[in-house]
Structure to design on (128 residues):
């Protein structure tokens, strides 16, 4: 049995102790949805930027098998960051897919920004 897609959890921020706060999209307010979208989008961009910077410096040496032990470790970490960026981009895409399902009006008005769409059509807008 497949889990309900709206039960998928997304990070909306961190606690004071630095622990992630996650919510399923079905339980999110519009503001929480925007926080999750921003969190995953920004995390993806940051991880990609960090990974690309290291890979750009070390790729040639890696191809020639001339990396030092420290550079090999940095190279592996950069690859892990790129994979993590891909995961975050995927989550951002999933959020957008679910937002379109929750706000079908938005699909027909692509000129409306994410924030404006949430303000206008998010299912809980009266409670937010």
């Amino acid at each position: 049995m497949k889990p309900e897609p709206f039960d998928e959890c997304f990070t909306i921020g961190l606690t004071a102790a630095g622990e992630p706060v996650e919510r399923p999209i079905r339980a999110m307010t519009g503001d929480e949805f925007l926080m999750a979208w921003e969190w995953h989008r920004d995390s993806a961009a940051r991880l990609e930027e960090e990974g690309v910077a290291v890979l750009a410096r070390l790729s040639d040496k890696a191809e020639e098998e001339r990396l030092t032990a420290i550079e090999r470790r940095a190279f592996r970490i950069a690859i892990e960051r790129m994979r993590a960026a891909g995961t975050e981009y995927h989550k951002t895409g999933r959020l957008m897919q679910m937002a379109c399902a929750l706000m079908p009006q938005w699909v027909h008005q692509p000129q409306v920004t994410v924030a404006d769409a949430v303000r206008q059509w998010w299912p809980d807008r009266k409670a937010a």
